[in-house]
Each structure stands twice: as C-alpha cells, then as structure tokens.
TrEMBL record:
Origin superkingdom: Bacteria
Sorted UniProt keywords: Plasmid
One Pfam family of this chain: MORN_2
Alphabetical list of Gene3D superfamilies matching this protein: 3.90.930.1
Protein name (record): Toxin-antitoxin system YwqK family antitoxin
Organism: Hymenobacter canadensis
Amino acid sequence: MMRLFPIQLIFLCVIGLLSSCEPKVNRRYYPTGQLQYVDSLDRSGHVRSITLFRRDGTLESTSPLKNDSVHGIVKWYDEKGQLESTEVWDNGKKNGLVNEFYPNGVRKCLKVMRGNITVDTSNFYYPTGQFVRFPESSASCE
C-alpha cells in the first residue's frame, strides 16, 4: 500500500476542489447525430447558459440564464452564422434594448422593450448605417 505524505494529500484535495468548480456541460443531439444544444450547469445544477444549433449545424442562439430564467444578452444568428439580433432579458422577460442587424453587420433598428412589450421603435437605419429620420411604413423591427 502506498503511503501519502501530507503535501500530497493537500495537492489531491486542491485538485478535487478545482475539478468540482468546473461547469458541467450537457449536450443533446438531433436523431441525425448533429448537435442540437449545449447547456452548462453551475455546481448546484442550475443551467447557466444554453446554446442552440440548427439541424445543419449552424449556430442559432446563445442565452444566459439566472435562476432558470433567461437573464442577460441573448444573441440570435442567421443561417450563415452572422449576428442577426441581440436582446436584453431580465428574469425571463425582454427588458431593455433589442438590436437587429443587416446581413452586412450594420444595425437595422433599435427598439426598447419593457416586460416583453415594445415601448419604442424610433431608431431605424439604412444598410449603409445612416439613420432613417422617417422610416417607410413598411419598416419594421420585429
């Protein structure tokens, strides 16, 4: 039987503590074997974030969570992997700025949400990034 010295015991205990601090990760796959989502859990087992993927493997969204509710900046991506929009969430509700982007990465519109309700959509932009003072009636920031 191997005898451990005190410094070796301390080292093993520190390694054990550090490994328990690492976030746990769960992965779920589509029936085709393609990754569907990844979630990371904190030490108490609560989900900290969820990353969703489309069936073709492209990134769809990233969502931070707090106390099992969406909380923080959610990012949505188009089929080509370009950032499509960002949304500020607070305890499961859209509360704050929502930005939408053109495929070239330029901001399309900016709106303000309170409790999942749009309270202001006055900021629209051309694909060049120039502010639209009076948007056409067809302009929307969905």
